[in-house]
Amino acid sequence: MPLPPRWVRRLLFAPGVILLAVTVLTTVPVWALLALAASPFVPGRLRPLRLLWIGCVYLVWDAAALVALFVLWLASGFGRWKRTPSFQRAHYVLAGWFLRVLFWQARWTLRLSIDVVGTDPDTALPGRPELVLCRHAGPGDSFILIHSLVNWFRREPRIVLKEALQWDPAIDVLLNRLPNRFVAAGDGRDAAVRQIGHLATGLDDDDAFVIFPEGGNFTPGRRVRAIDRLRALGLERMAVRAERMQHVLAPQPGGVLAALDAAPEAGVIFVAHTGLDRMLTVADVWRELPMDKRIVMRFWSVPPEDVPTGRQERIDWLFDWWDRIDRWIAANRDGVTAE
C-alpha cells in the first residue's frame, strides 16, 4: 500500500492518533473488563489484558510524543529553526525521554531486561564519529539499539529506514526532523546505498550512523534466500561463508562500503544481541506473552586506523565480523557469555 503524502499524514494521521488515544483512555475500563474475562480461556498469564495494556500504552505514548513535537514546532518559530543545533538536540532529548518511558513499560509489562556484557563502558561514548553495524533480529531491536545509543551513550543516531515506518505518526514526524532518510521498497539497493553515503557525510563527534547490513530481520527463509542470491551473482566463496553462519543473514556490503568511504574518520562499532531472535512472527510474540526475556547486547569497537582500506579487504573484514557475531549469538542463546 503506497504511503500517503506528507500533508495527509500531518493533517489526518497525527490528529487521528491523538483523538483515538483520548477515546481509548475514556473507554479503557470496558476493554479491560472484556480482556480480563477472556484471560481464563487463553493460555498464558493474562495475555489479553497484557496485550490491551501494551496497545494502550503505545497509543498514548505516540499521542503524547505528537503533542510534544507540536510544542517544539511552535517553539522553533513554526518549524523555521527546527534544523538548528539547539532544536536538533532538543529532539534527541525528547526521543531519549520517550524511549526511556517505553522501555520502563516493557520491563514492567513484558518482563524484559536489557544487559550489555563484555563491553568497555566508554565503547560508544562521544569523542569521535562512529558507524554502528548491528545484526537485525526479533521485534523491536532497532528501538533497543537507538535507546542504548541515546540514553546510555549520549549519541545522536542517524539511520536509513524503510519508508513504511512513516505510517507511525510519531516516528514519521520525529525522524523526518532529524538527519535520517527513508527508502521506499521500490527504490532498489543502489538508491539505498546512495542515501547511506549521503547521510554518513559530515558526522561529528557525537554522531552515530546506524546500519543493519543484513537488510532485514533474520529468518531461516531469508538466510537461505541470501545465500542463493550470492550464488546467483557468482559469489561462491561468500555463499560458502554465509552457509557456515547459522544465526545471521549474509551481510550486504554495499551500504557499509558507502558509509566507510563517506566517513573515513569514523570508528566502527559492531553490535550483537540475542533474547528476542526466536520470535519471528506475530504468533511467536503472542505465544511468548509475557516474554520474561533477558536481552543481551555486546558492543565491539574498531578504531578508524584498524579499518581495512581496500574494497575486497573490507568485504572480507565485514564477513569475518559477522562470523564472530554468529558464534557469539550461538553461545549466548544457551546462556553463556562469549567474547
TrEMBL record:
InterPro entries noted in UniProt: Plipid/glycerol_acylTrfase
Top-level taxon: Bacteria
Domain Phospholipid/glycerol acyltransferase: 130-276
Record-level Gene Ontology MF annotations: acyltransferase activity
Keywords: Acyltransferase, Membrane, Transferase, Transmembrane, Transmembrane helix
Transmembrane segments: 12-39, 51-75
Pfam families according to UniProt: Acyltransferase (PF01553)
Keyword Transferase: yes
Protein name: 1-acyl-sn-glycerol-3-phosphate acyltransferase
Originating organism: Micromonospora antibiotica
